[in-house]
Input
Amino acid sequence: MTEEEARAWLDGQFDVSRGTWDRLEGYVAILLSEMERQNLIAESTRPHIWARHIVDSAQLIPLAKAAGEGAWLDLGSGAGLPGIVAAILTDRPVQMVESRRKRIDFLESVVAELGLLHASVFGGRVETVPVAQAAVISARAYAPLPRLLESAIHLSTEKTIWVLPKGRNAQNELEVATRTWQGVFHVERSVTDADSAIIVAQAVQSRRKARG
Output
């Protein structure tokens, strides 16, 4: 996907208003500027930032369209991908979870600068987030699937939709996870990379709990 195709995809999927474009472009500018101070995204992806990061994050939103009311919880937000993108493109409350001080400061500055009043940052480990019963949980490059589920299951309900980009290892991670976890799982192909995939899940629970 080229940068031009990425912008066209966004416009086609979300009918992006001028104000939303301004926020997306503002976020990209902030992200690239902050790259001079900390390594937020891989240097090799800088020329492809709209496809590799903005659309790669935005594509999760349609996959969670059936979610009920409640917050979008983004684990290990780092540079704000997909949390900031979800906050720009939707009205759903978004809480980003990040434990690294520099990343927390960066995310808080982006939220303030872009005026994302429905977005917030929790500074700490995922395991310490107060029970939130999120409507949507996302995590991009956070942890292998079994560990991810273990750390965040207390934040979910049977109705929570998990949208988890897993690159080329999606099927392998899912096979390992389903030994100890059950739920309604399926794999979606990424629109930005035909070899990458996204695990979408609902009604997730540990097999131990189900047996008990």
Summary: The longest strand covers residues 197-206.
